[in-house]
Write a structure and sequence with these properties.
Elements: H1 8-25, E1 28-34, E2 42-50, E3 56-60, E4 78-84, E5 90-91, E6 93-97, E7 100-104, E8 111-118, E9 128-129, E10 134-136, E11 144-145, E12 153-158, E13 165-167, E14 171-173, E15 176-182, H2 185-189, E16 193-196, E17 199-205, E18 208-215, H3 222-240, E19 248-255, E20 260-263, E21 267-273, H4 280-295, H5 322-339, H6 345-360, H7 370-375, H8 388-391, H9 397-413, H10 420-434, H11 441-452, H12 457-464, H13 472-476, E22 481-485, E23 493-494, E24 497-502, E25 505-511, H14 516-519, E26 527-531, E27 534-535, H15 539-543, E28 551-558, E29 561-568, E30 570-571, E31 577-581, H16 587-597
Parallel strand pairs: 1-12, 18-19, 19-21
Antiparallel strand pairs: 1-2, 2-8, 3-7, 3-11, 4-5, 4-8, 6-7, 9-10, 10-16, 12-15, 13-16, 14-15, 17-18, 20-21, 22-31, 23-30, 24-25, 25-26, 26-27, 26-28, 28-29
């Protein structure tokens, strides 16, 4: 480096930084994983760090996994941490924080660290091990030396007996599938690993090799998976004009119940019910999940809010833009399934109407803005309780509807020539490809305005940073569509409480803000015993005997004490929307409609 013209104090700083980087670059990190007690849900981890030049090294376990915005405290599953020198001599190690172990090794350059991790939580965000297979969510397994996230590592896997296959997006070393390579910890932490006897389906789409690891039995058809995944992949790639991966891996867990997904840099993990492939409705819903996680390849894994990378694995990483990262992706999932030809136009509009209905009926709309929902994901979204519907909105659900309205505004202002697609491609090209950094909230808003050609100040003030109700029909009218409420004119009565019948008891599980149940003091965990002196076995049946405006005497058991509540039943305020075309759409409306529904 030529230091000519640089002040001497800067030369010293630069020299120190260069020496530090050179020293760090010489450090080598290796992991070895083995599973001698897989049946008991343990993985043994051996971590080697070589060429250190310091008196002690802090080794850390992440507290969260990117894409799932909750501090999960992965260190709680770590056992038996110990460190030793090359000659086998034990080194002093102490835990100095909830997720940090300090190893003292003055004049010893090479360390070997051993620990085991208990893994028995089969979700897309956590690790699971039993005798049949291991699913490793990498941030819950691999520790890293503090300050050395940028260093590459090699991972040697010694599979449990009878495990024959490995599925991951990590590169293998020298053709050995059980020796993997990660260029830095961010890539390692963002690359789940499945080890076992999964059914691996291989195909090429958008010019890129793809692998689907089917874990567990399911009613899937291999050829249909290839054909249908290809359509989703290629429709997604068209939006951005380029595919960012040299290969991509789907890890699909076929489970008895439940579902969900988590995006990664070059892969995804999803869960689906093992027989969901058999019926068209559940299969198309599964394709929507696949489309959602695949769209994340661009939106959030590369095009991202500034706060989401480089990651701080020690604490929360706050952003007010999850309504863009997750909400826009939630809008695109069904839209991509429609564009790939799996949903008819009528079915797609039916699903949109259901989304409008769900959001309109949510009491939390009046309480939490979308931007706040994004920011508070760390303490609220994954920690829902009986009052969440009254106090929160989902940055997925409401964010997807905000995306739909933004899309309609752009289509309207450009006579169907531009859409949200153009915003996403521009942002990807500008901030990921060209600038290689995250975007700010202001930059996303500016891009939307650039393609729409109008200000979004009022939109943001009311719908993103405020709690104003979406004016759906204003935007739907651009496409010659309107929402009609199928509940209009009905006089159905309304209590405003959700209940469950458990063990012969009718228990209150939720109370809706503003409802008669809320106003007159019915509580979650109350057991409803009687109405007007008659024992309650079927609450809905008894309420059907009443009419709007009736006052009922409800006897409940609360904390072991009997009390009676006088409750005045009201008219049901909930809507049930249907999307319909206006009688005579204009050519402008028709252009927007066709551009939207493809």
């Amino acid at each position: 480096m030529n230091f000519k013209g640089i002040p001497s104090f800067l030369i010293v700083i630069i020299s120190v930084m260069m020496m530090s980087q050179t020293a760090q670059a010489a450090v080598k990190i290796n992991y070895q994983l083995s599973f001698p007690e897989a049946q008991a849900h343990y993985v043994e981890v051996e971590m080697s760090i070589r060429n250190l030049d310091q008196a002690y090294t802090d080794v850390k376990m992440p507290v969260w996994t990117p894409g799932s915005y909750l501090v999960r405290e992965f260190a709680r599953h770590v056992e038996g941490f110990r460190a030793q020198a090359p000659d086998g001599k034990a080194l002093r190690a102490e835990k100095i924080s909830k997720n940090t172990w300090r190893v003292y090794h003055e004049k010893i350059a090479d360390l070997k660290i051993n620990y085991r991790v208990y893994a028995f939580e089969l979700t897309v965000r956590t690790s699971f091990i039993d005798a049949s297979h291991a699913f490793l969510s990498s941030t819950s397994i691999f520790m890293y030396p503090d300050g050395m996230l940028n260093l590459p590592s090699e991972i040697k896997i010694i599979p449990h007996k009878d495990w024959k296959k490995i599925s991951t997006s990590l590169d293998s070393k020298k053709g050995d599938p059980y020796t993997l390579y990660a260029p830095d910890y961010d890539v390692l932490g963002d690359s789940p690993i499945e080890i076992g006897n999964q059914d691996i389906i291989e195909f090429t789409a958008a010019g890129v090799p793809h692998y689907v690891a089917m874990v567990g039995p399911g009613s899937y058809d291999r050829e249909k998976i290839i054909r249908d995944f290809t359509r989703i992949i290629e429709e997604s790639t068209k939006i951005f004009g380029k595919h960012p991966c040299k290969n991509y891996t789907f890890i699909v867990h076929n489970v008895p119940s439940g579902g969900g997904g988590l995006e990664h840099l070059n892969s995804t993990t999803v869960q689906t019910q093992r027989f969901s492939y058999s019926a068209e409705a559940t299969y198309n819903s599964f394709l929507g999940l696949i489309a959602h996680e695949y769209f994340h390849l661009w939106n959030v894994k590369r095009l991202r809010p500034a706060a989401l990378g480089p990651f701080d694995y020690d604490t929360e990483n706050y952003t007010r833009a999850l309504w863009v990262s997750e909400g826009f992706t939630a809008f695109y999932d069904n839209w991509l399934v429609r564009r790939a030809g799996f949903y008819t136009v009528d079915k797609y509009l039916e699903l949109m109407a259901a989304d409008f209905t769900k959001q309109t009926n949510l009491a939390g709309n009046n309480v939490q803005p979308l931007s706040e929902s994004s920011f508070d994901a760390w303490i609220k979204y994954y920690r829902r309780n009986e009052n969440s519907n009254n106090s929160q909105v989902s940055y997925y659900d409401k964010g997807s509807l905000a995306a739909a309205l933004i899309n309609l505004e752009i289509l309207h202002q450009t006579q169907g020539q531009k859409s949200l697609d153009d915003v996403m491609k521009y942002m990807y090209d500008e901030y990921y490809t060209k600038l290689n950094r995250g975007f700010t909230d202001a930059e996303m808003k500016k891009a939307i305005e650039q393609f729409a050609g109008v200000s979004f100040d009022a939109f943001y003030a009311s719908y993103i940073d405020g709690t104003g109700p979406f004016d759906y029909n204003k935007y739907l009218d651009y496409a010659g569509l309107k929402l009609t409420d199928q509940n209009a004119g009905k006089n159905d009565l309304y209590l405003g409480a959700n209940t469950s019948a458990t063990g012969g008891k009718v228990m209150v599980t939720a109370v809706t803000a503003g409802s008669p149940a809320y106003q007159y003091g019915l509580n979650v965990n109350d057991e409803i015993l009687a109405i007007d002196g008659y024992r309650v076995d079927d609450l809905a049946k008894m309420l059907n005997l009443k009419k709007t405006g009736d006052t009922i005497k409800m006897m409940v058991s609360r904390d072991g004490m009997i009390r009676t509540l006088d409750i005045v039943l009201a008219k049901d305020p909930n809507v049930k929307y249907k999307l319909e075309r206006v009688a005579q759409p204009t050519p402008a409306q028709d252009a927007v409609y066709k551009a939207w529904v493809k």
